[in-house]
Specification:
The protein has helices at residues 2-11, 16-23, 27-34, 42-54, 86-94; strands at residues 57-59, 66-68, 73-74, 77-78. By secondary structure, it is mainly alpha-helical. Strands 1-2 form a two-stranded antiparallel ribbon. Strands 3-4 form a two-stranded antiparallel ribbon.
Amino acid sequence: MSDFIRHLRRQLGMTQEEFAHSLGITVGTVNRWENGRFRPSKLARATILEFARRHGVTVQPDADRTTKSRSTERAGGAAEPRRQSPKTRMTMLTGCPG
């Protein structure tokens, strides 16, 4: 989880302070999450996922990594980015079902 949070923040080009302010939490909390001293609560994880979604970043189903969403061209037009259920995303982030 700590790597995911750090990667997400860097993907968005934010400092810990900017990331914390955007989520309404303290810089110390972000720092503790990134250093693995604490894990975000279930509510915080849901908030982080929603924050990522609003900024066009999705969690890939095969890894705890993030990528900017991009539509791909297919026959018949552009495809929508793949969406996972909240339970699937939570399982990917925590390693256990919501």
